[in-house]
Automatic annotation (TrEMBL):
<dbReference type="Pfam" id="PF24924">
    <property type="entry name" value="DUF7745"/>
</dbReference>
<protein>
    <recommendedName>
        <fullName>DUF7745 domain-containing protein</fullName>
    </recommendedName>
</protein>
<feature type="domain" description="DUF7745">
    <location>
        <begin position="135"/>
        <end position="387"/>
    </location>
</feature>
<dbReference type="InterPro" id="IPR056647">
    <property type="entry name" value="DUF7745"/>
</dbReference>
Length: 391
């Protein structure tokens, strides 16, 4: 197998997460990542034989005699933060301030304009995404304290920061209202931009405690400037939240519904082929999706009927903006890819969704996949995180 490092284009720009990725190949005797090229027939055969043989030898991730206890229907809440104040702040900024933001964080604010169709979201939940990475996020065992990170991001004193950190349930947070006031009054425009971006990450992308920005989000955000891509963490928390709702039969989705629906519309909707403009420097898929008018009078029952009756020609398996080369499909001793989130870990098998590349689908190895999911609590999680990070 060939090994390669996968480089994310403009990793600080989250909005590019739903657009395209490019990769750089290199040889390294220490690399434990293995990749798959869907468009190369020779690689196809080799990986397919390995996958099917491994699956036959090891078996499924589920134990023999397992009986699913999942309910036939899951009621998912898509309760979101009220983003009106965030939108108003963005609207008040002049072109120079917005250009500064775009330069450091890409087209992130377009997430504010993506309308959440709760009925479509719930319907699609009851009826895969490919993985490519650059420098992934891994929760630090001995990283800076929450207060130190906030001091670095906001430029405020330790006394100011400490006085505003609150305990919210089982986690520490900083209320949005304090960051809002800081954005409006901070004398340093760059710091206002940083705090605004942190707020979008905490209120839109990882909205755990409504009206607050979670401590774990600040840890990920603090590393964006060091080349860390948020994409695997976003996938991890998306899958973890959906899994939790599915097992319980209900629950609130704690993830970025805007990005998930953007992905949905990119693959499961008949659209005209996107022209060469997707490769232009100023093109934004999020901007286009936010500006596209959509019907909001379709009931959840009608959405389910539509989705259940989708035909082959209704599905755009390979989104027109995807420019894939290779897929990271296994790491170290794992026959799949463990995804590190901000609150926990989940196992993921990218080979399950080869049809997104219009490639031949085959059975991937899944042994141990179900047992990989865990949260960042207790005494043993740090050791497990180190093992995954090393892989």
């Amino acid at each position: 197998m060939k090994c390669c490092a996968l480089t994310y284009r403009d990793s600080g720009s989250l909005s590019e997460y739903v657009r395209t990725y490019v990769f750089v190949r290199f040889s390294s005797p220490c690399s434990h990542r293995e990749t798959y090229s869907p468009e190369l027939n020779s690689d196809n055969a080799a990986v397919r034989i390995w996958a099917e043989t491994t699956q036959q030898e090891k078996g499924d991730s589920l134990t023999e005699g397992y009986v699913s206890e999942l309910l036939d229907f899951t009621r998912v809440s898509v309760t979101q933060n009220n983003l009106q104040e965030v939108k108003e702040i963005w609207a008040q900024w002049d072109d120079e301030a917005k250009r500064l933001f775009y330069c450091h964080y890409g087209y992130l604010p377009y997430l504010l304009d993506v309308k959440i169709d709760e009925r479509l979201f719930r319907a699609s939940f009851n009826i895969g995404i490919l993985l490519t990475v650059d420098r992934i996020y891994s929760k630090a065992a001995n990283g800076p304290a929450f207060s130190k990170r906030l001091m670095n991001i906001t430029g405020m004193s330790e006394q100011w920061v400490t006085a505003r950190i609150k305990q919210k349930g089982d986690c520490r947070c900083i209320p949005w209202r304090h960051l809002r006031d800081l954005i409006l009054a901070h004398p340093d425009m760059k710091k206002r931009v940083d705090v605004f971006a942190l707020s979008i990450y905490g209120l839109v992308i990882f909205p755990k405690a409504l009206g607050h920005i979670d401590e774990a989000v600040s840890d990920l955000f603090d590393r964006l400037s060091k080349g860390t891509t948020p994409m695997p963490a976003i996938l991890a928390e998306t899958f973890r939240s959906l899994n939790a709702c599915r097992r319980a039969g209900e629950g609130r989705f704690i993830g970025c519904a805007q990005l998930l629906l953007s992905w949905f519309h990119s693959h499961f909707w008949k659209v005209e082929k996107v022209s060469y403009r997707v490769f232009s420097e100023n093109y934004s898929l999020l901007k286009e999706l936010a500006a596209t008018p959509r019907r909001d009078d379709i009931t959840e029952e009608n959405w389910m009927a539509i989705l259940q009756n989708l035909q082959e020609e209704d599905v755009e398996w390979r989104a027109p903006w995807m420019v894939p080369d290779e897929i990271l499909y296994r790491c170290g001793d794992f026959d799949w890819v463990p995804l590190l989130g901000v609150w926990g870990v989940v196992g993921y098998a990218p080979l399950l969704v080869l049809r997104q590349y219009r490639s031949r689908q085959f059975t991937p190895p899944t042994y141990g996949l179900a047992q990989c999911e865990f949260v960042f609590t207790g005494n043993n999680y740090k050791r497990r995180v180190r093992e995954i990070s090393n892989a």
